TrEMBL record:
NDH-1 is composed of 14 different subunits. Subunits NuoB, C, D, E, F, and G constitute the peripheral sector of the complex. This is NADH-quinone oxidoreductase subunit D. Belongs to the complex I 49 kDa subunit family. HAMAP family: NDH1_NuoD. It comes from Solirubrobacter pauli. The lineage of its organism: Bacteria, Bacillati, Actinomycetota, Thermoleophilia, Solirubrobacterales. It is a peripheral membrane protein.
Length: 424
């Protein structure tokens, strides 16, 4: 007689529950009818700490260590930024949208300013366009470096984590020099940029672009010569390009599967058609291709930055239409008209003709777009972001089904989601 029978006087394999009670239990009866489900276990991974990829919860169904189902749960950092934008003057919306995808702040501002400029039908001076491109590509490298650092940490590669933060910090120093802020600088303005770059900034950027390719070689040596990392990257979480397209996935994830879609080439904006660069693509669509594509993208960003600074045009850094841009500070003491424009812009803002515009750009995570609808007032009637992290997250289920739990961790890292952009 088993210990259970001795204690309860019953012969059930379940302590305290007889055979008759077991048959009457709907849950256990169903469990017995479907013995193939006996090995399934549902676990909560998360909500993760904000210091990881963001506050994300993954409801995962496991059979042993193999994933059979995965459901992402989002909304933990919902801020209502888009709704708050409707209560701000157009030019005061910029600090809000920068904090959606908080690693791609220049891209958020670019998409929003581009949509407003489309509604206003104003031209951005060539110098401002080139300065925007230089800052966008620096921001792309900074975002990819943080992905590389945290992704390396998820794989147990501590050295990559420290080196990635080191090089990213150099870019933040350049942002601080040009705009006064390391993150969320509010440097992009409707009609151009807030101010011209200071003396010596171009020289420091050129010094960075001269040394950074060697840093990328060091990263490649650390990862490509590590057999443990390669075994976890190669042949894992494969998704073909047709499936990704059906899910609306864009950016490095789609290009890693072999589709070269990149808005900088497909629909150039802010003078990207003036620069010579390549679109890296993969062949298999596994985690290794995702890693190699982002590494190659950083090299191409260096080329774009060098071309933008070498060909930086002379002229204005923002539109000279004083109805939409703050006048130079030195004019306020001598020009009544400049003082009036300054007062009106700061207190009320500018009015935008009724209409709507959708402005897509290529962010580090894929197609980022801003939709703005105007009702003719000085505040937008609607601001909505098409955030690539939100769309790309649905591919995590496809990537992980049939894979091991360990592969789910690296798939999430290679997805590079930013939950601030997902929740908004």
């Amino acid at each position: 007689m088993s210990d259970v029978t001795q204690r309860t006087g019953q012969t059930s394999a379940v302590p305290g529950l007889g055979y008759r009670e077991l048959e009457e239990s709907s849950y256990d009866a169903g469990y017995l009818e479907h013995p193939e489900h006996e090995e399934l276990l549902t676990l909560n991974f998360g909500p993760h700490h904000p210091a990881t990829h963001g506050v994300l919860r993954l409801i995962t169904t496991l059979e042993g260590e193999v994933i059979r189902d995965l459901k992402p749960v989002i909304g933990y950092v919902h801020t209502g930024i888009e709704k708050n934008c409707e209560d701000k003057a157009y030019w005061k919306v910029i600090p809000l949208v920068e904090r959606m995808d908080y690693l791609s702040y220049y891209f958020n501002a670019m998409a929003y300013c581009g949509a407003v400029e489309t509604l206003l039908d104003i031209d951005v001076p060539p110098r401002a366009q080139y300065l925007r491109v230089a800052h966008l590509e620096l921001n792309r490298i900074a975002s990819h470096l943080l992905w590389l650092a945290t992704g390396g940490l998820d794989l147990g590669a501590m050295s990559v984590f420290f080196y990635g933060w080191r090089d990213r910090d150099q870019i933040l120093d350049l942002f601080e020099m040009s705009s006064g802020q390391r993150m969320h600088p509010r440097y992009f303005q409707v009609g151009g940029v807030a101010e011209d770059v200071p003396a010596g900034w171009v020289k420091k950027v050129k010094a960075f672009t001269a040394t950074f390719p060697k840093r990328l070689d060091q990263y490649a040596d650390l990862i490509d010569n590590n057999q443990l990392l390669l075994q976890r990257l190669r042949g894992t979480n494969i998704v073909d390009k047709d499936t990704l397209l059906q899910l609306g996935v864009t950016g490095p994830l789609l290009r890693a599967a072999g589709n070269p879609w990149d808005l900088r080439k497909a629909h150039p904006y802010s003078s990207y058609d003036h620069f010579d660069f390549k679109i890296p693509i993969g062949t298999v669509g596994d985690n290794y291709d995702r890693y190699r594509v982002r590494m190659a993208e950083m090299r191409e960003s260096v080329k774009i930055i060098d071309q933008a600074l070498d060909g930086l045009p002379d002229g204005d850094y923002i539109t000279n239409n004083r109805k939409y841009a703050l006048p130079p500070r030195h004019e306020l003491a001598t020009s009544m008209e400049a003082l009036i424009h300054h007062f009106k812009l700061v207190t009320e803002g500018f009015r935008v003709p009724p209409g709507e515009a959708y402005y897509p750009i290529e962010s580090p995570r894929g197609e980022l777009a801003c939709f703005v609808r105007s009702d003719g007032s000085s505040k937008p009637a609607r601001v909505h972001m098409r955030d690539p992290s939100f769309v790309n997250l649905q591919s995590l289920k496809v990537m992980t089904e049939g894979e091991y739990v360990a592969d789910m961790i690296i798939a999430l890292a290679m997805l590079d989601p930013i939950l601030g952009g997902i929740d908004r």
